[in-house]
Task: inverse folding
């Protein structure tokens, strides 16, 4: 067994993959040929990724994949670098086989869930994240991601439970607090949502979700000028979100500023089409 | 804790009492819809409506069920038979379709009622593939097809319809929504590409990926003829969205009928009447076009009601699965989506919603809410469903607890709510005039359901029938306000309700413990008002416009 395979064994054992599946993966990787080159490419990709050059890292990993198409380590690295580069489609195309090769590895289900969420397929994302949660319960990252995906599907009560558990495990997690604020706003607990959103904004003034939640709460309290200001911060923090532009168009409409309302309505429509195109691309690639 | 919960659940089960009883067979209703088993084409999934109206003026609601053809029987108009059932009293019905002559409108979709010719007898408009039918009531148990003379056939794939006097000239005009462009000789191939797949399973194509169709507004010329004026009026839908259910109502209370149109997979429309024969589409700024997070929803059915006791008419819109049904509060100047805050949304997420109505089923003076569901893809049961329901789906019944909150309470009321079916049209009305609102449902597959309200201990009630003057004899568009003690309720007389259906035009008020209504005020469609004071409960009151 090479040092490379041994390292993989340790990592995979940590995630509870069966020996049979592991051997299959090792055999498969060994049959692919020059492992030294693959290892060099992996090292090179790591260095490129650390230097912030995602494009170069992805290219190195694609070359590695050409040499070792079923290598778990290559596929995993490719998925992670793709996700870091906000390129969910390549991530999904490698994570789907990876989850089939290693069905007991929670991390891959988690990454697949995150990738699907990035791509806008929330139904599949929730399924993957729930599987990750079953494989490795009470993992804080998974709980937060699951909360975010459930928020996206408007299943706020379910989301709230996961997010509260994640905050028990890591009380100060800003992303979890922001997601919980979103869930509370969805449930209708507006006071709780506002408190949580303001808590996030106190430490991260430009937080997109917290700004959006605050804007939604203020809209419901008919404090339209304050809502507009919060929503403006939300669109700056997350310019691709149709939701923030839509709410902003409503805020301007309530304030009587028709021109700005129309402007953000158009931006909303544009962003919505972009979201749909991404979702269509995912469906076409994954058949889901 | 678990033990306490179990005890609570057992106590709840022991307290369960009958609400609606399925009397379909006992009532003598044997209507059976025709439907293609596989629903390979979208046109086979969308029918049909049901109407509750009193065609023979005997004071009892009659029922008209819409039937549809299939692609296989598309050229055999008599392969489908819509059915009119006459209410004989004592909850018995008789099929009078053949005598009435309204059994074969074609590939039926929806229905709405109105006294189009102002003779005091209700006529019917049926939306049907390739053109609608106007059936004029002959006052002798028969109807005459007056479509061609009236000029209201339209064309294409009409869905929802509704009459209103939008120009306030005294007579009733007709709006017809349309869905997708369908050529029966060149149908989109089942499962042909990714737009014809759902969760990886081949399904019917559409509506996305298919061309849509614009809508029609037929202005009543007052001489038995109508003129299509959709384009001039600004309601023709030039972008050809996928129109479904609709509601004429007056959300801004300026006395002029406005129009909400539910669009499938596209933003909804809210046309605000400009009082000069034209409308301004304002759904986005008024907050009723899309979901709260800006998502375009697959909207199907619409209910209008004063569900929060504010005196303003809000909206409830049913949508596709994974989307939520929208409960929209009328703030006077705009609408607020309160679907989650009201607790109506979460239970709706797994279902494809269709027919819906606000109804006070327990007469406690708060309008409750009913929704019937059912998917469009029979193939769905082979797919990965996630949290979604299958092809057949249960119903939703929400009890209004006041304070803007609803509880979903279907399960304790048994199989009429929990049995999984593929429902479409729904209409409400009091079939036996006992003061408790009944429900009639037309399913896509199989038999309909007539659900008789048998809730014991329901509160007091009042039913109001209004008679308008001039050509609008049903006073469609009239707003009725009833005040009993501290509670004020409002109802609207509508033509075209729910999903492609027609509710009883008599308006029902639950009164709780109140034994009289202190004040009834009718605001007539022409803007005048009539007031009645100290009206005893538990009876039908007829109010005629002076």
Result:
């Amino acid at each position: 067994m090479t040092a490379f395979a041994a390292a993989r064994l340790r990592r995979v054992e940590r995630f509870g993959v069966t020996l049979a599946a592991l051997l299959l993966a090792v055999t498969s990787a060994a049959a692919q040929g020059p492992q030294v080159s693959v290892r060099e490419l992996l090292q090179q990709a790591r260095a490129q990724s650390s230097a912030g050059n995602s494009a170069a890292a992805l290219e190195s990993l694609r070359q590695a994949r050409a040499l070792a198409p079923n290598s778990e380590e290559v596929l995993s690295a490719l998925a992670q670098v793709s996700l870091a580069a906000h390129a969910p489609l390549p991530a999904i195309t490698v994570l789907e086989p990876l989850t089939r090769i290693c069905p007991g590895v929670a991390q891959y289900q988690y990454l697949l869930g995150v990738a699907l969420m990035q791509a806008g397929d929330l139904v599949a994302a929730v399924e993957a994240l729930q599987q990750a949660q079953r494989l490795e319960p009470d993992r804080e990252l998974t709980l937060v991601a699951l909360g975010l995906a459930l928020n996206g599907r408007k299943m706020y009560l379910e989301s709230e439970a996961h997010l509260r558990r994640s905050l028990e495990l890591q009380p100060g997690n800003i992303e979890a607090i922001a997601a919980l604020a979103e869930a509370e706003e969805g449930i209708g607990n507006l006071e709780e949502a506002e408190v949580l959103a303001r808590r996030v904004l106190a430490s991260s003034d430009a937080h997109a979700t917290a700004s959006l939640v605050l804007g939604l709460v203020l809209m419901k309290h008919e404090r339209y000028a304050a809502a507009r200001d919060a929503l403006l911060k939300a669109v700056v923090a997350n310019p691709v979100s149709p939701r923030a532009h839509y709410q902003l168009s409503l805020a301007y409409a309530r304030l009587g500023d028709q021109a700005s309302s129309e402007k953000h309505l158009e931006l909303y429509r544009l962003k919505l089409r972009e979201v749909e195109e991404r979702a269509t691309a995912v469906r076409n690639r994954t058949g889901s | 804790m678990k033990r306490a919960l179990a005890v609570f659940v057992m106590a709840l089960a022991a307290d369960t009492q009958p609400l609606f009883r399925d009397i379909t067979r006992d009532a003598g209703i044997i209507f059976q819809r025709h439907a293609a088993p596989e629903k390979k084409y979208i046109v086979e999934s969308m029918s049909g409506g049901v109407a509750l109206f009193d065609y023979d003026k005997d004071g009892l609601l009659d029922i008209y069920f819409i039937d549809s053809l299939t692609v296989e029987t598309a050229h055999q108009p008599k392969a489908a038979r819509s059915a009119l059932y006459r209410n004989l009293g004592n909850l018995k019905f008789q099929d009078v379709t053949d005598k009435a002559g309204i059994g074969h409108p074609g590939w039926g979709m929806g229905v709405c009622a109105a006294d189009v010719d102002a003779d005091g007898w209700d006529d019917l408009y049926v939306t049907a593939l390739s053109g609608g039918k106007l059936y004029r009531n002959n006052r002798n148990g028969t109807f005459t097809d007056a479509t061609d003379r009236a000029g209201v056939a339209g064309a294409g794939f009409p869905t929802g319809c509704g009459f209103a006097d939008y120009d306030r000239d005294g007579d009733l005009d007709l709006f017809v929504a349309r869905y997708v462009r369908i050529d029966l000789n060149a149908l989109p191939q089942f499962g042909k590409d990714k737009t014809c797949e759902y969760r990886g399973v081949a399904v019917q194509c559409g509506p996305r990926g298919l061309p849509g169709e614009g809508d029609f507004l037929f202005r009543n010329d007052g001489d038995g003829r109508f003129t299509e004026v959709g384009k001039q009026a600004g309601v023709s839908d030039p972008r050809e969205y996928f129109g479904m259910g609709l509601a004429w109502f007056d959300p801004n209370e300026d006395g002029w009928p406005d129009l909400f149109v539910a669009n499938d997979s596209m933003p909804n429309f809210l046309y605000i009447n400009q009082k000069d024969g034209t409308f301004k589409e304002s759904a986005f700024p008024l907050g009723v076009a899309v979901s709260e997070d800006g998502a375009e929803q697959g909207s199907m059915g619409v209910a209008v009601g004063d569900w929060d006791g504010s005196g303003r008419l809000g909206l409830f819109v049913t949508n596709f699965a994974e989307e939520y049904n929208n409960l929209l509060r009328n703030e006077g100047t705009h609408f607020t989506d309160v679907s989650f805050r009201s607790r109506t949304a979460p239970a709706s997420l797994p279902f494809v919603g269709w027919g819906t109505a606000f109804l006070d089923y327990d007469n406690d003076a708060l309008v409750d809410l009913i929704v019937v569901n059912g998917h469009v893809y029979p193939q769905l049961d082979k797919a990965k469903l996630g949290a979604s329901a299958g092809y057949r789906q249960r119903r939703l019944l929400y009890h209004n607890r006041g304070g803007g909150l609803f509880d979903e309470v279907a399960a304790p009321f048994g199989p009429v709510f929990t049995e999984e079916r593929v429902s479409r049209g729904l209409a409400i009305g009091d079939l036996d005039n006992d003061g408790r609102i009944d429900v009639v449902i037309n399913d896509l597959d199989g038999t309909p359901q007539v659900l008789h309200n048998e809730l014991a201990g329901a509160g007091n009630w009042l039913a109001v029938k209004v008679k308008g003057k001039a050509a609008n004899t049903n006073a469609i568009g009239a707003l009725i306000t009833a005040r009993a003690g501290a509670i004020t309720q409002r109802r609207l007389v509508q033509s075209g309700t729910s999903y492609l259906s027609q509710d009883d035009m008599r308006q029902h008020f639950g009164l709780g413990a109140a034994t009289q209504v202190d004040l009834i005020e009718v605001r007539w469609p022409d803007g005048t008002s009539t007031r009645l004071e100290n009206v005893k409960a538990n009876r039908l009151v007829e109010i005629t416009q002076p």
In short: The longest strand of chain B covers residues 242-249.
